Batch of 3 targets.
Target 1
Amino acid sequence: MSVEQVIGAVRVRVDRMRCVCSEFCTYIAPNTFETDGEGLVTLLAGSTDSEAAVREAARNCPASAITVEAVEP
Ligand code: SF4
């Protein structure tokens, strides 16, 4: 199951079926990602993390479960 949200100029999508619960994303961008009671990634509303932090989290996800794409203006 995917969850997505627009944060600033990017659309962030997480694929919970791919998530392996490493929690790297929650350390890198803690205002965007959190893990739920099952240990799987989910998105927080109203993120204040920078686009750079969100992209860094996506790069460091060992399961490639995070997708970040630019939103058309
Ligand atoms: S870094 Fe990837 S695998 Fe780890 S919790 Fe976040 S989405 Fe899941």
Note: Residues 31 and 48 are 6 Å apart (CA to CA).
Target 2
Amino acid sequence: MSSITFPFATLPRTGNIPLTPVPPIADADRKPLTKKEISADHPTWCPGCGDFSVLALYFRLIERRKMWHEKITTVAGIGCSSRFPYFVQGHGAHFIHGRALPFASGVSLSRPDLHVFVFGGDGDAFSIGGNHFTHTARKNIKLTYVVMDNQVYGLTKNQTSPTSPIGYKSKTDAWGSGDRPINPVKQAVAAGATFVARTSAMNPNHVLAMMEAAMDHDGFSFIQCLSECVEFHPGAFDAAIPRKGGVFNEVSKEHDVTDEYAAYKLADTAWPGQFGIFYKATRPTKNGNEAKIIADHRAKVTGLADWQILQKNFDRMK
Ligand SMILES: Cc1ncc(C[n+]2csc(CCOP(=O)(O)OP(=O)(O)O)c2C)c(N)n1
Ligand code: SF4
Ligand SMILES: [Mg+2]
């Protein structure tokens, strides 16, 4: 048997080599991450799937806004759309079906300095994750949630989703769905989301503008992004695509985004509806509330390390 020579075996053993300190680079001098640096595996979506566009725009957002790896977290649940974090070279998690928001809430509350982005599908958000959607919205946790709404369960190959239109034929409704679909914008406004927008993956500039506005919002920002499933629900959004004879109606500049009832009414516009920011409000965030509780408490117990404060709390609960 021939012997294998490990190349480093010939290097002299030097013990602990002191590292040369590297001066930190000021943010202003750092180059933005490029698509090459932030993209991971080749996306495994079907050719033509609307989700490709959302991913490409997320990369553009990261580059445009000069966000670096240590400042972004990308979280998702389970579904075709929720494969998103696999394709992002960065911190994040492809979590449990419907549980992306609780996970992301923990990240946001413990690291309020991060931009937390959550991506997922209509099933993930409004079926199994429906309760989490409501509570994350009402608690106004600072994160951006982009629901890639294809009006179907794509990953599991064509079941009716909470946003499927009446009459939609699927494996679970062979004769056509008879259930009234939920309206994601109304759902978000009613739950207490403080930023609510609607866009379409077929309009890249608009998606980017909505993502930028959402990430700049201090609170729970929600975007319903129509994203076509070309495999199981092709043509679902043609009515909003001008080159297919549809109309992309943007929310009028006269719309008062602070008026909750106006947002609700606007969300009832006949299909394919309107696109833009429906609602935006300034309300205390859970991040802010918790930071205050922590600061007040720390002020009362000066001289103690965080672990000692925790220990004291546990002792008090005995
Ligand atoms: C707890 C649990 N229940 C059910 C499933 C099966 N499942 C995986 S994805 C999915 C629905 C996906 O639909 P959606 O969230 O709309 O994402 P899409 O695939 O359409 O992007 C379901 C029911 C699962 N993975 N885990
Ligand atoms: S099944 Fe539909 S949602 Fe899933 S990757 Fe294919 S086109 Fe996209
Ligand atoms: Mg879906």
Note: The first helix runs from residue 35 to 38.
Target 3
Amino acid sequence: MQLMIQTFHKYSGKDGDKYTLSKVELKDMLTQELGNYLGHAQDKDAVDKVMCDLDSNQDGEVDFTEFVILVGALTVACNDFFLEYHQEDGKKGN
Ligand SMILES: [Ca+2]
Ligand SMILES: [Ca+2]
């Protein structure tokens, strides 16, 4: 949780409002923190889509509440990934 807050503020303070992520900041965060995981996030359309999905009140910025939703979604995605990974691993063992 602490790490999430630190990560958010590391990027949210760079441009405009200190407490929200603009599209530029969101893109920075996605490429810096999740570049390996979301390789296609460097694609402008992908950032637009993530921004659109996250910005639930449509003010053009991602606030901390909206950011938490992203982290939750990624946690679920990672969990699915690891479940699949373990299933693959199990198959190899047989
Ligand atoms: Ca900002
Ligand atoms: Ca918003």
Note: The longest strand covers residues 20-21.
